[in-house]
Amino acid sequence: MNNRYNRHIILSEIGQEGQDKISKAKVLVIGAGGLGCPVLQYLTAAGIGTIGIVDFDVVEISNLQRQVLFGTSSLGKNKAEAAKKRLEDLNEAISIIAYPEKLTHKNAIGLFNQYDIIVDGSDNFATRYLVNDASIITNKPLVFGSIYKFEGQVSVFNYNNGPSYRCLFPSPPEKGTVPNCSEIGVLGVLPGIIGSMQANEVLKIILGLGKALSGELLCYNALNNKTTTLKFNKSESKIDTVLSKKKNFHTYHIDEFCEVDNHIISIKEVVDQANIQTIDVREAHETPKIENLEVTAIPLSELEQSIDKIDSEKQKAIFCQSGIRSKKAVSILKTLEITNCYSIIEGALEIKSYLKEQHKVLSDER
Amino acid sequence: MELKIKYFGQIAEVTQQEEESLEFSGVLISELIEQLYEKYTPLKNKDFQIAQNQELVTLETQVSGNEIALLPPFAGG
Q1: Which residue numbers in chain A have pLDDT < 50?
Q2: What is the CATH number for B44?
Q3: Are the C-beta atoms of A171 and A261 separated by less than 8 Å?
Q4: What are the structural domains of chain A?
Q5: Min distance B34 CA to chain A CA atoms (Å)
Q6: In a domain, B9, yes or no
Q7: Beta carbons of A181 and B59 less than 8 Å apart
Q8: Which of B18, B30, B35, B47 should one mutate to test binding to chain A, selecting the residue with the greatest count of A CBs within 10 A?
Q9: B37 is in which domain, residue-wise?
Q10: pLDDT tens digits, residue range A271-315?
Q11: pLDDT tens sequence across A104-115
């Protein structure tokens, strides 16, 4: 009798039956980086029957501080292939498949369909939204982990009809506003902790043990050891929007699907443009009223019924009292597939005084 | 009422603290966020979700709890 899994098997909660479940499971890991390495290491050691690894990148010296599957002999090699080589030494009895390619809308569905559980260890928002959406479309549970400097987030999406990443963060932040590890740095052991938590969730799902982190986001801070768990609900409309793209999913381009909808501009940029419609989403009674600029008034509460007032040919610049409702309006319009919408960062008072100043300058010049 | 506000990730970098107590006299979460925008202008450029007593809420939710958390998305891996 093979002794390898003895410490699992002697646990009454797992037993041979549980170990058999593990050996029949198929898990696809997106990214063999800081998170992917510990995930892969523990899943391989646990004896997951089939493990897929997607990573197009190559091992660099700066990866070795945290990507513990690699050594100096892996430098310059593809990460998926280098990981496979190391993992085969760890456990020769399982099947490990390396996909040394980029995950795209073209290959995601086909790949995901071959596995039971998806693990997200990617390092950018575009891939994270792609992984989430492809998991929704293929109806696979997704074990999510992400890190920032000394903090990590862990959750399980699309599990037993549970919420998805888009129910938590509906759309990606504006490009360049959230730096990644290569730009800002990361404590090397942090992905080890978060990746191990992800591996734990994978095993819990396979074994039906305990309670998966579905509908909950676990936030971990390595500096004070505090964990906070926040609950969130499923948004049927967010899931339906993703499902509606199922048929043409392979035709989307990664940046397009991850389209940024929190576009923010300044009133200073608005006044310079001719082809722009400025929309005030405040309620009719709110002051100050804006002068010296043509404004279409559509209170936020009436926005969805008033899209005929919106000029589809023009860019839309939306403002309100403080910049909160205008952001909301942009995301409502996006769900109605009205694009080219921007939220003006300034509130009505600042806009009014800026326009007044501009008007004064212009009058003085004349 | 006095609220305990918790900040995560980049949000804590803007506020330069992980939590603080804040006096709030409004009704809605949106009013609280306006108050925070006034106190920390760079917050306007940050994406975050809001939780009240450990549950995600929207801007239209009434402030009823005593603990509010501002949670940004992370992408690193």
Answers
A1: 1, 257, 259-261
A2: 3.10.20.30
A3: yes
A4: 6-257 (3.40.50.720), 264-365 (3.40.250.10)
A5: 7
A6: yes
A7: no
A8: B47
A9: 2-71
A10: 877 788 999 999 989 999 998 889 999 999 899 899 899 988 888
A11: 999 999 999 999
